[in-house]
Amino acid sequence: MSVFRRIVNTFTRSKLHQEIDAEIQAHVEMRIVDNIAAGMSPEEARRNALLRFGNRTVMRERMTAMDAATSFDAFWRDLRYAARQLRRSPAFTAAALITLILGIGANIVVFSVLNALVLRPLDVPQPAALYNVVHKTPGNDNQSYPDYVDFKNQNSTFSDMAAYRIENGGLSTRDAAYKCWYYRVSGNYFDMLGVQPAQGRFFHSSDEHGPNSAPYIILSHNFWRWHFDSDPRVIGTTVDINKHPFTVMGVAPAAFHGTELFLWPDFWMPVVNNPDDEGTDFLSWRGSHNLWILGKLNPGVTPLQATDNLNAIARQLARQNPVDEDLSARLVKPGLMADMFGGPARSFLAGIMVLAFLVLLAACANLASLFAARTADRSRELAIRLAIGSSRWNAFRQLLAEAMLISVLGGALGTLFSSVLLNTLTRWQPFPQFPIHVTVTPDPKVYFVALVLSIGSGILCGLIPARQVWATDSAQVMKSGGAGTFLFRRLALRDLLLGVQIALCTLLVTSSFVALRGMQHSLHAPLGFQPQGVLLAETDLHMGGHFGASVTQIRKRMVEEVGRIPGVASVGIIDETPLGTGGSSSLVYREGTTDFRPSNSALGAKFFGISPGYLQAAGTRLLNGRDFTWHDDAKAPKVAIVNELFARSMFGTADSVGRRFVWGDKLPYEIVGVVENGKYDSLTETPWAAIFFPLEQNPNSDTSLMVRSQLPPAEIVPELRRTLAQIDSGLPFVFHTWPEALAFVQFPARIATAALGVMGLLAAMLAVTGVFGMAMYSVSKRMREFGIRVAVGAQPMQLMRSALSRPVILLLSGSVAGLVLGVIAGQLLAQIVYQATPRDPLVLGGVLITMALLGLAATWIPAQRALGVHPARLLREE
Amino acid sequence: MARNDLQGTLDLLVLKTLSQMGELHGYGIVLHIQRASEELLCVEEGSLYPALHRMEMSGWIRSEWKVTDTNRKAKFYRLTPAGQRELQSAEKSFEQLVKGIRAILRYA
Question: Are residue A471 and residue A323 in the same domain, yes or no?
């Protein structure tokens, strides 16, 4: 009978009855005919035929019951029985469930993040055809506007190409002002992406007619909802952006939030409009790289063909323009600031995914040994069941049902636990000053993975007892009382599993120690400034409508008046906070250079604009020369302060005061001071040369006021706020302490440390339960032997040695292997975490102590049990 | 020692019958066993049908509703390859049983 028929039978019990009845009826009728032929009367023939069957109802019931034994009924019975069995051994159930929840939960969390960051495309039509065009050398992803125009017009492989950059500025209406993040995009941006407006209309390339010709903005759905009450009448009205009038043209759909996965901007405006209108704009400057290019491939064109096509154009451009001599093209998946976060984030996540998977494997290994130990404990029960006529298949099904129940339950709980974690992660805003949302809500793909993981691990664990059921020889087992002869052969595989698991745990523990030490280093690394005790007040003066001379004046007033606040030790201004969102860099030439192509440059340097007093406020040591004064203004001779690295690589000596160099604006600058080296972009960067210019010789509206004071921030901020409001009440300021602001650069290291720490903790817990389970099992199997040995005079140490030598040897060899792996992995880690090195006595010592503690924790109870053996009682029990 | 019980013997009879006769309904099986054993063995209907059902679930035999020579609908059974194998092993263990019993009777 086919399986299908069996299933149908279960649901149509009455149909089965009917079929049996029909069969018997046919039999009875044939018998009647034969009986009559043999000479019986019809009456007699009928009676005889029926009598031969005995009780027909009883027979029919026997047949249907037989059928049900292999149907869903039996399946439910198995499950109910399994649930009862698990309730009866809560310790085993809890251990197995926790193991699974950890293993599966960790995988779901990591997979969801991977899914959100790497696998999920941008939420626009045809996301697979979209690519960011970046330079061949990683880390430099911005393009200039003229290069963008040439790429767009000359290529034959893209259906269209858009450019965008992300800026912040102030949007003000008649009633309110907001600090906003917005996109400046080329006119074809929305058309290329194929997005339709929710209200009004979008701008097109036909709306652009040169600089400042298209004063329109498109509001994001959220901004429209929160600040304009979803009022459609806002379309066509005028708002001010950095005090310049712009017309609201439309509203983007709710789901569209630009072309970065985690950034939620407030509005979009055409790139040709510059709300910072003063000074040189980048639209005509080929050397100014500050746009991202996003292209949509023609159908049928491969990324490789497109790259070749763009590189041909790049070579052509390099011939025509000296500044383009290094131009080259590479395509990357969009969504993570081109390749800036994409590269490191992807490889880091892939690494973590591997670790999570290893944790799951360790969990499975644990679970398998738990189940194997449990089945071995029950071998006597199994043997009895087989002896009294249960089929092997029945016994196996029973064990499998238990494994499946555990794994599905564990999977469900693991999913629940991870979705709670993920929800927290989604609500989490890592940097309050940026509109970043990490949406990692699980989607069907994630639930599918969870299901596969739990069922897969269930079957894996179910297969272990299966071997045992098939190998059980009931007579043998009942005779020898359960301590099967297979024990040692079977342990060999489990030994290996456990050894691998311990090695893995050591690897993770080592990695997290390395990362932790790196974090600690990075907190005490020489930064080239002293962030402790410094308060930052950041603003963009353009938001208050300050341009030209007004900028200089207001900055001077800020420094002077804030300096008068009681308790303020020193105060200064820098345009871009070091180790903030990243400063600008530029090429530097030796004096006398006339041909300004990149290959003729002396070096590349970070540059900043600073006010007099900044060096003191920031705590940057001046090695030679002098600080700036307010007389180093636009009319005075061009001067600069450089860092020691700059001085040494340019002139070979730190004492280079009075020397000159030529900067990107082709003008000579005289060095008036040399300061200590510092960190400017990230904690793990290779040291940069750096130049500091007087603010007025390097016009810029970004302003970061640094206030050094002994007073706690809570006391100084209200006074600071009041003073700044008196200078210009319309300027939006962001206040935070410098250590707080540094959280941004420490973020990757923090995340890496946290992830490794959690994984290490998981692996450690699994290793403990694994070693514990094994030690406990080996002790409990040998209790009778120990009893006899104690009775004949064995010493406690001898017992300990034979009970625990195997787990301890495993622990030792696993730890050594893991430590070696950890040292190798530490080199990879050094790229994410500052000065991460495993060759650190503290790290090595820490790992050894941790593993020793884990071993102690795992073997303590089994050892106690082995030592507490009471021969008389034990022998009586047996 | 081979597995031997009365149920096994009934199975053996049914399997052997089907292997000799090809396709047969329950009543036909009863008649055939009776005839072939020269009226020595009489299969009880009350045991036959549960046995047929069990063997069908074990995959040894397969059933099909068909029309008999006398134009009556009945369920016909036939041997499957698995049933063929089962028959061989059942025959072998039955021979052993007979041998064993004979040996004991000789002693007595």
Answer: no
Closest Cα in chain A, distance from residue B108 (Å): 30
pLDDT tens, position by position, A543-563: 777 777 778 888 888 899 999
Query: From CA A773, how far away is CA A362, in angstroms rounded?
Result: 13
- Shared-domain flag, residues A549 and A564: yes
Give the ipTM.
Answer: 0.88
Q: How many domains does chain A have?
A: 5
Q: CA A707, CA A535: separation in Å to the nearest integer?
A: 5
How many whole angstroms separate alpha carbon A275 and alpha carbon A698? 19
Our measurement of the distance from residue A106's CA atom to the centroid of its chain's CA atoms, rounded to an integer in Å, reads: 12
Say if A119 is an interface residue toward chain B (CB within 8 Å). Answer: no
Distance from CA of A23 to the nearest CA of B (A): 6
Please indicate if any CB of chain A lies within 8 Å of the CB of B56. yes
Q: Report the C-alpha gap between A99 and A97 in whole angstroms.
A: 5
What is the rounded CA–CA span in Å between residue A134 and residue A684? Answer: 23
Considering A384-398, A522-536, A552-566, A800-814, the range whose residues carry the highest mean pLDDT is: A552-566
**pTM for the whole structure:** 0.59
Pairing of strands A702-709, A568-574: antiparallel
**Paired sense of beta strands A584-590 and A660-662, if any:** antiparallel
Residue A339 domain flag: no
Residue range A90-128, pLDDT digits in tens: 777 887 888 888 878 878 887 787 777 666 777 778 888
Within 8 A of A67 by CB-CB distance, chain B residues are: 53, 57
Q: For B65, which residue in chain A has the nearest alpha carbon? A: A23
The chain B residue lying nearest A25, using CA atoms, is: B74
Contacts of A52 in chain B (CB under 8 A): 44-46
A512-A516-A518 Cα angle (round to 5): 115
Contact (CB<8Å) B27/A30: yes
A205 within 8 A of A186, measured Cβ to Cβ? yes
Is residue A486's pLDDT more than 50?
A: no
> Would you report the helix, strand and coil content of chain B in percent, each value rounded to 5?
60, 15, 25
Same domain, A611 and A706: yes
- pLDDT higher than threshold 80 for residue A220: yes
In this predicted model, what pLDDT tens digit does every residue of A20-41 receive, in sequence order?
Answer: 888 888 888 888 888 898 888 8
| CB contact (8 A) between residue B68 and residue A30 | yes
Query: Helix or strand or coil: residue A734?
Result: strand
Residue B81, phi then psi, degrees to nearest 5: -55, -40
- Residues in Cβ contact with A144 at an 8 Å cutoff, skipping those fewer than 6 apart: A282, A285, A286, A287, A288, A289, A290, A291
Q: Which domain holds residue A430?
A: 72-122+344-481
Judge if A443 and A349 occupy the same domain.
yes
CB-count burial class (<10 Å; 0-12, 13-18, 19+) for A457: buried
Q: What are the structural domains of chain B?
A: 6-101 (1.10.10.10)
